[in-house]
Design a protein that fits this description.
Radius of gyration: 37 Å
GO molecular function: G protein-coupled receptor activity
Helix content: 40-55%
Strand order of the largest sheet: 6-7-10-11-17-13-14
CATH class of the largest domain: Mainly Alpha
Subcellular location: Membrane
Pfam families: 7tm_2 (PF00002), GPS (PF01825)
Keywords: Disulfide bond, Glycoprotein, Membrane, Receptor, Signal, Transmembrane, Transmembrane helix
Distance between the termini: 137 Å
Membrane topology: Multi-pass membrane protein
CATH architecture of the largest domain: Up-down Bundle
Mean pLDDT: 76
CATH topology of the largest domain: Rhopdopsin 7-helix transmembrane proteins
Strand content: 15-25%
Number of strands: 17
Structural class: alpha+beta
CATH superfamily of the largest domain: Rhodopsin 7-helix transmembrane proteins
Number of domains: 3
Oligomer: single chain
Number of helices: 21
Length: 693
């Protein structure tokens, strides 16, 4: 009789079967021969030796795993050393899962010698070709036949990947008639690879979707479970817990309470799920059920695949809580206890989108954050069934920044409006020459751009979070980007005007041509940059930040379309300041110490005027983009930028002696007109008319 080969594709992609070395082990070793380490524990999938070749930066190599594991370990050269990057070492396969039943069925008892030969059946049982087939044949009631093999296996990266695939197959092929016993066995298998001792090995699994597949498989399997009692504690493992209850439209507000530990020694992290009463009213009269699952360690291994190269990580800072609810329930309240209880650990409520394999900030809204607890209101859908809170290590949660921004923007807007009123009042008296005309055109457009940008900023900060995916958020981001860029480019054109006024002496450009260049630079360049940014990033959904209507940084680096032009203009303006300083400190013949002092004063005045007007204060913004930046840099940046409108009014308008003189003349003219009007009203002719009346 020809022996049929067992076929199983392992995590490394290699076909494994009875013809492979690992498959032969299942046939050749007796029941007591476990291939154990001398200490009694399964030996780790180590290699015989590391890569022998020279370690060239970014080069890769691989070595086979030590027996009895099959697979390989990949290495990458980093800092002149070979470092492990991937691992597929596994000791599990379909035949090893069911080999105990195979051995017990194939061995003959001692009394077999007295049994007639025609009664004995020496044929081996039919081979198991799939997990579903093996479970249906050996343990269809509770899946218990696979527990011992899985729980005794070492949690190598290859074995973890195999177990996740095992759970996924069970969820898809054996999800009919799920009982509480099956749910317990299923959770015991998942608990084995969610142990804190196995967490470090998840990083070496080649398929980065493995952790997401595990979460989705558990949720899918739990969805098929049918409850028989009003309330049940379904699973109570150390690293996975599950509870269920029966509900209907007459049920009062229901809660699930969890307390799960990150390991066996730490205190439990609390989590609570509440189904609001108004949501339960949407249920039909007949009874339904709700199931909840808590994962204390899954947050440390759950990977957002498309964000794997982002410099700013988004660590999970609480339990991951999954819910399986009946149709009609849309919103759920969650209460999370923070794992990291630092004051700077700002929380953000999120839901895991199973299709996109990432955290979705729009799925939840933070309703309350007090001390170490966060309350979230989340939208439940078939794609978003698991929820948690994220922590940003760079988040700056300081009310000082809010106060500075609020007060500064108010003063800035008032100052800019006052600046425009002053310019309108003295316009005819200060634009006597072409250069002065263009200079005041620059000031007016700088004030207008910053004023509109500040207004858009206020609208953005109050824009409702749920509407951030709409076209309104795209429009808000575009106009904020455009007008902030316009501010910088008008500053840049003013710097060009200063250079033109200093260096070009014998040739003067026509006013109309200078105006055309000014508007092309001030509004044309920002329009091109902002429009290109929208066209490139919106199709990839990487134009805006997930939590605000502003340019994205994490995925597409769209913020560079603002930061790079701004920083380049700041650098150019620094050069302009130096040119002005050099040209204004050239002493004439016969200069004295008093003249030198006057030159120093003029240099100080030029620098004092140019610094805020040309955006040098925005250089502090570079520091705020760096990881681990001190709070003082954020405060200085917020202070200087929030009050920039006041700086424009002070240095660009009030400190200009020509504008002050024009204002005095304007006021004198108004006073003269008022006195003339009074004198005219008190003249004898008017007096006689009044007497006649």
């Amino acid at each position: 009789m020809q022996r049929q080969a067992l076929v199983m594709v392992g995590p490394s992609g290699r076909t494994l079967g009875a013809d492979s070395p690992s498959g032969l082990l299942a046939f050749l070793h007796e029941d007591g021969d476990k291939l154990q380490h001398p200490e009694g524990k399964l030996k780790t999938g180590r290699i015989q030796e590391k890569c022998r070749g020279p370690c060239i930066p970014a080069s890769n190599c691989s070595q086979p795993c030590a027996q009895p594991f099959h697979g390989e370990i990949g290495f990458t050269c980093h800092q002149n050393k070979w470092q492990k990057s991937t691992e597929t070492c596994t000791s599990l396969s379909v035949e090893t899962l069911f080999k105990q039943d195979f051995n017990s069925a194939s061995r003959l008892p001692l009394a077999a010698s007295s049994i007639p030969v025609h009664v004995l059946d020496f044929r081996a049982p039919e081979p198991v070709e799939s997990v579903a087939q093996g479970i249906r044949r050996n343990c269809p009631i509770d899946y218990a036949c696979i527990l011992d093999v899985v729980k005794s296996s070492e949690a190598t990266s290859g074995n973890i990947a195999f177990i996740v695939e095992l759970l996924r197959n069970i969820s898809t092929d054996l999800s009919d008639n799920v009982t509480q016993d099956k749910m317990k066995s299923y959770s015991e298998v998942a608990n084995h690879i969610l142990d804190t001792a196995a967490i470090s090995n998840w990083a070496f699994i080649p398929d980065k979707n493995t952790s997401s597949d595990l979460l989705q498989s558990v949720n899918l399997f739990a969805r098929q479970l049918r409850l028989h009692n009003e309330s049940e504690n379904l699973v109570d493992e150390l690293f996975i817990q599950a509870k269920g209850l029966r509900i209907n439209h007459n049920t009062s507000e229901e809660k699930f309470n969890f307390s799960a530990s990150m390991n066996s020694t730490t205190e439990g992290i609390l989590g609570m799920i509440e189904i609001p009463r108004q949501e339960l009213w949407n249920l039909p009269p007949n009874a339904s059920q709700a199931i909840s699952i808590a994962f204390p360690t899954l947050g440390t291994i759950l990977k957002e695949v498309h964000l794997q190269n982002v410099s700013l990580p988004r660590p999970v800072n609480g339990l991951i809580l999954s819910v399986i609810l009946p149709e009609g329930l849309k919103q759920v309240l969650f209460t999370f206890e923070k794992i990291n209880k630092s004051r700077s650990a700002r929380a953000q409520c999120v839901g895991w989108h199973s299709r996109k394999r990432r955290w979705d900030e729009n799925a939840c809204e933070t309703t309350l954050e007090i001390m170490n607890r966060v309350k979230c209101l989340c939208n439940y859908t078939n794609m978003v069934m698991s929820f948690s809170i994220l922590m940003s290590p760079k988040s700056i949660d300081n009310k000082v920044l809010d106060y500075i921004t609020c007060i500064g923007l108010s003063i800035s807007i008032f100052s800019l409006i006052l600046c425009l009123i002053v310019e309108a009042a003295v316009w005819s008296r200060v634009v006597m020459t072409e250069v002065s005309y263009i200079r005041h055109v620059c000031i007016v457009n700088i004030a207008v751009s910053l004023l509109i940008a500040n207004v858009w900023f206020i609208i953005n900060s109050n824009f409702h979070k749920k509407a951030q995916d709409s076209n309104w958020c795209v429009a808000l981001t575009f106009f904020s980007h455009f007008f902030y860029l316009s501010l910088f480019f008008w500053m840049f054109f003013q710097a060009l005007l200063i250079i033109y006024g200093i260096l070009v002496v014998f040739h003067r450009m026509m006013k109309s041509r200078m105006m055309a260049i000014g508007f092309a630079v001030g509004y044309g360049c920002p329009l091109v940059i902002a429009g290109t940014t929208v066209a490139v990033t919106v199709p990839e959904k990487g134009y805006m930040r997930p939590d605000a209507c502003w340019l994205n940084w994490d995925s597409t680096k769209a913020l560079l379309a603002f930061a790079v032009p701004a920083l380049v203009i700041v650098a150019v303006n620094l050069v302009v300041v130096l040119v002005v300083a050099v040209n204004t400190q050239r002493p004439s013949i016969g200069s004295s110490k008093s003249q030198d002092l006057a030159i120093i004063m003029r240099i100080s005045k030029n620098v004092a005027i140019l610094t805020p007007l040309l955006g040098l204060t925005w250089g502090f913004g570079v520091a705020t983009l760096l990881e681990g930046t001190s709070l003082i840099f954020h405060i200085i940046f917020a202070l200087l930028n929030a009050f920039q409108g006041f700086f424009i009014l002070l240095f660009g308008t009030i400190m200009d002696h020509k504008i002050r003189d024009a204002l005095k003349m304007r006021m004198s003219s108004l006073k003269g007109r008022s006195r003339a009007a009074e004198n005219a009203s008190l003249s004898p002719t008017n007096g006689s008319k009044l007497m006649n009346r």
